[in-house]
Design goal:
The complex is a heterodimer. In chain A, helix 3 packs across helix 11 (254-264) and helix 11 (254-264) crosses helix 12 (276-295). Helices cover 71% and strands 1% of the residues of chain A. In chain A, strands 1-2 form a two-stranded antiparallel sheet. Chain A is an all-alpha fold. The longest helix of chain A is centred in the N-terminal third of the chain and has 26 residues, at 48-73. Chain A has a single domain (31-322), classed as Orthogonal Bundle (ABC transporter involved in vitamin B12 uptake, BtuC), CATH 1.10.3470. Chain A has helices at residues 13-21, 23-41, 48-73, 81-97, 102-126, 131-150, 175-193, 195-205, 207-212, 217-242, 254-264, 276-295, 302-327; strands at residues 168-169, 173-174. Chain B is α/β, with parallel strands linked by helices. Chain B folds into four domains: 1-95 and 203-244, P-loop containing nucleotide triphosphate hydrolases (Rossmann fold); 98-176, no CATH class; 267-345 and 430-518, P-loop containing nucleotide triphosphate hydrolases (Rossmann fold, 3-Layer(aba) Sandwich), CATH 3.40.50; 360-428, no CATH class. The termini of chain B are close together. The chains are: A mainly alpha, B alpha/beta. At the A-B interface, helix 8, helix 9 and helix 13 of A face helix 11, helix 12, strand 18, helix 15 and helix 16 of B.
Amino acid sequence: MSATIIAPARAGEGGFLRAFASQEGLLAFAIVAVAILVGLDNARFLAVRNLSDIILGNAYIAVAAVGMSMVIVSGNIDISVGALIGVLATISGSLAVAGAPLALVWAAPLIVGVLVMMLQGAVIAYLKIPAIVVTLGMLSILKGGLISVTGGRWITDLPESFHLADIELFGILPMPVVIMVAATILAAFWMRYSARGRAIYATGGNAEAARLVGVSPQRTVVMVFALHGFFAGIAALLFATQLKVIQSTVPPNLELTVITAAVVGGVSILGGVGTVVGSTLAAVLIAEIASALVFINVSPYWIHAVQGVLILVTVVADILRRRRRLAGG
Amino acid sequence: MTDAATRAMTTGHAARAPLLSVSGIEKSFPGVRALSGVSFDVEAGEVHALLGENGAGKSTLIKIVSGVFKPDEGVIRVDGRETQLNSPDDARRAGIATIYQELLLFPELSVAENVFMGHAPRAGGGRLDWVAMRARTEELLASLDIHDLAPNRIVGTLSVGNRQRVEILRALSQDARLLIMDEPTAALTEYDVTRLFDIVRRLKSRGVGIIYISHRMDEIFALADRVTVLRDGAQVGTRRVAETSSAELVQLMVGRRIESLFPKIAAKIGAPVLEVRDLVRRPMTKSVSLTVHSGEIVGLAGLVGSGRSELAQTIFGVTPAESGAILLLGEPVQIRSPAAARALGIAYVPEDRGTQGLVRPMNVRENFSLASLAKVSRAGFIDRAAETRLAEDGVARFNVKASSLDQIVGRLSGGNQQKIVLGKWLANQPRLLILDEPTRGIDVGAKAEIHRLMSELAGAGLAILMISSELPEVLGMSDRVLVMREGRLVAEFSRTETIPEAVGAAMMGGHGAEAGRVA
């Protein structure tokens, strides 16, 4: 038996691989670059208060994007998550106002989130209905249901104890940041090193090949959606407590911002590729740009256009990359 | 068609330049030489059959003639004039139409709309002239003596045979003078085959030239005037059908390559590993019984569509059996899923490594460990060092050429990809290995390596069931050859008694041999 022959990389491949491996590096670089450029124009942007507000106000998007990244890596998509976060926040807030025990107030959105998403995952996996259709249906149900049940009223007078976002761990670490970082690291570790995490990549990369090696793509998809629901529950708690008031209208296009974070973070819309570290960094970058627009006197409404450009650039780069990668086969 | 008529047909046009002639066609793809120096021609009113095994270059040749691929070298002449066919549209303008195996129709549209898609008759102001479209479809139908097909029928509701007729009408509506038919009878019922033959003869008498690709000897002898045999991308012979026999054609197809292949080393054949008894899974597996012993390579020969892959997938639990028994090492087992099969020590290397075997966005290491994640994991987490060792072993054992374990597999060559798919399963240390077309589409060197490996594995006591459409591979590698046809095993040959002609005849059915004798 001959020894391993490892041919040198073809020209250009090393560079491409490095760029691929460092989607996260690129995002971290962009975050710093935007801060410096905007800071040069308006030094107040760099105030600690502003920077921490950016992260505190958007940690829930990063947490939701962790789940979304898993869903997209598995070869699916979910556009119901914005509406679901609104419903879960309302459930939790209503329980808090009604005086339910704190454990229930905090557990309810997690449990309901997991159940709703598992249901969607099961319909997608076992009835083989495209995820975009199933979650579009759920989006309408949840949005319509929420506005009908609440009658458009906001929930106020939330008890102090409910305010998860106000807790500071060890007196200095704000809970939203702790949760965002912990969720990202745990999910990243699990995706990278667990057998089930690997099954998600295999299912998204080639469901038929996964099935033939004995990985059940169906079970994998249901599991991914269940986790996504769990992260949506945490996101709902952060969202509900950051403003001390729960609006029955979730921020419009919340699901799109979450999907943008995942995609800009390097998750391939074709499935099989991406990390949650990337999606969290992308969520921070998008929030940073939104805030920066105000500081450089550009209408904040431009953030949607900026998100659009980010998405298109990332997706085009992804498709070109994939084409190159597959060209050899 | 009688011999006399055949000769009259071909000699009658001999004075004119042939409808189509290609000469010295060369075509290579990365790592594979698909065609080398192929020359043939089609006269008006002639049916010229192309014969060859899978991978012999038939598809590449017809794609060149229909403008899909550009040849690297060689000249194409239409009516004696040198012609460049740079696109399917060029071919269409030159009067060449192709009917592929997968019919390219719009199922939601009507027969007339499909026939005239892209060149519909126009009324004033750019509107479609529906009346003319229907009338011309009627004319075309009448010209082929088809009376059971209405122009306004929706194509999706038609039988396969009728859909194929729509494709033929479509070609005729564009005034095609050369029709290429790629295995037109593969999916047809016997009645539809008869009608197709009738249409082909009618077209022939009208002066349309036809390139007819088929594996079925009886069809070639019933329809064709001449037959060209391809092997490994080279033209090994062109014969007048009236002057050849099916035995000679099989000989030409198979050639003398058997000796040049890596031969199977004699291994000690042990106890039965797999025993299959009366296995049924409709519609393609009809009561199959077979045994594979330890150390034995059993070759499963048959035409594409004979049910070999379906049998393999039933054994592997992809499409679990409806009845019958599977015994592994003498113990009856239930295999309801691929996961169950894997747990029992069965490995399956699927036919299409691109869609079924590899996870292309993943790297070499991750693909190698995919079937044995449980072995390299502890408490659900992958031990990266163990995984790397597994992949390194695989790379060394299979001589995979990759820049590193982190290389994305989508960019590797076909041979290296196949080695990874094979290695993925062998990392799981199976007792039974099912290989479905293990060397399809890979270069000669990688092929020889995979054959060497199969030999070694059998020597180490593994039981191997190998499906292959390449007769030399089946004959060279197998201890026993089973022949499958229409969902059943129809013949069995031991290593000492395998004769290519006999296996070929069993694959194609009795008609081929008879037709050969008559001719």
